[in-house]
Amino acid sequence: MPDTTTARLFHISGMVQGVGYRFFARSAAQRLGVSGYAKNLSDGRVEVYAIGSPGALAALRAELARGPRFASVSNVEDEERAVDSRYADRFTIERDDW
Fold first, then answer.
1. Which of 4, 15, 38, 60 is such that its CA lies 20 to 30 A from the CA of 88?
2. What's the rounded Cα separation, in Å, for the pair 76 and 21?
3. In what order do the strands lie in the sheet with 35-40?
4. Taking a C-beta distance cutoff of 8 angstroms, is the pair 55, 8 a contact?
5. Residue 22 designated active-site
6. What is the model's pTM?
7. Catalytic choice (8, 26, 31, 40)
8. Of 22, 69, 81, 90, which residue is the catalytic one?
9. Tens digits of per-residue pLDDT, 44-63?
10. Into how many domains does the chain fold?
11. Is residue 13 in a domain?
12. What mean pLDDT do residues 86-94 have?
């Protein structure tokens, strides 16, 4: 991974479950060259962990704020995280733990 690679954890609120949001996030991430995962949370939010360049992560955040056609995004929170090498080479949709 290049030195400019960073990771961010996004939490997306609103009507974001049951509308194809995780698949939308995966498509956007793949298009932007970002790796990581998307998963539903038990509180109704979607979590997206993303690894990429700062520019790609900023572009992904904008896509996450827009969401897919039937979603209604009310908020996107994000914070810097350590790069987890388990997710460095692909973007996956993770299973719910609840």
1. 15
2. 13
3. 72-81, 6-15, 46-52, 35-40, 91-93
4. no
5. yes
6. 0.94
7. 40
8. 22
9. 999 999 999 999 999 999 99
10. 1
11. yes
12. 96
Q: In this predicted structure, what is the pLDDT of residue 97? A: 64
Structure tokens belonging to residue 70: 């039937």
Classify residue 98: in a domain, yes or no: no
Q: CA end-to-end span of the chain, whole Å? A: 32
Average pLDDT taken over every residue of the chain: 94
**b vs e for 10-28, b when ≥16 Cβ sit within 10 Å of the residue's Cβ?**
bbbbbebbebebbebbbeb
29 lies in some domain: yes
CATH code where residue 50 lies: 3.30.70.100
Domain that holds residue 63: 6-93
Q: Closest Cα to residue 87, out of 31, 45, 4, 26?
A: 26
